[in-house]
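[INFO] parsing input record for CIA30 family protein
[DEBUG] input buffer:
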Amino acid sequence: MTPSTLMLTSFQQGLLNWVPINDTVMGGLSQSRFETIAGEGIFSGRVSLDNSGGFASVKAGLSQMVPLHNFRAIRISYCPDGKAYDIRLRVQEEQWAHIAYRFTLPPSSGTWQTADCPLDEFSPTFRGRHKPEAPALSSLTLSQVGFLISQRQAGPFEFRVRQLLLIGG
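[DEBUG] output buffer:
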């Protein structure tokens, strides 16, 4: 029997290894980091548009792969800073491992919120371009989670997260 919810991470120190991937991979100057403090994940830094830059991200591989066929959404408890952020998911299946499935959280500021992000609304992308040939996320096996700030949102940023759950359906 599949549980109705499954915690992906509780944001305790050392539970997952969060790795920054910024526009520096293509010459940009953006910087980011991910810290876990008192049960919160804090993705922060500065996005720079210099040198054709404009994004910062972090990712973490899951300790266990999760088949998504019995789940309908990801529930996130978060506190944004007025900027738009993406949840990014990657899958285990080798043919689709280069695809990032992306869900954009609407910009809002300063208050804790909880959102259910339907798996069927995650958009498959590769280097920012939509990939309609990719299969539905719900048919695949989750291997990695991450967060991204882009869309030319220059300046300092801070995105706080308390909870990331899979919701059954």
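[INFO] The chain has no helices and 13 strands.
[INFO] shutting down worker
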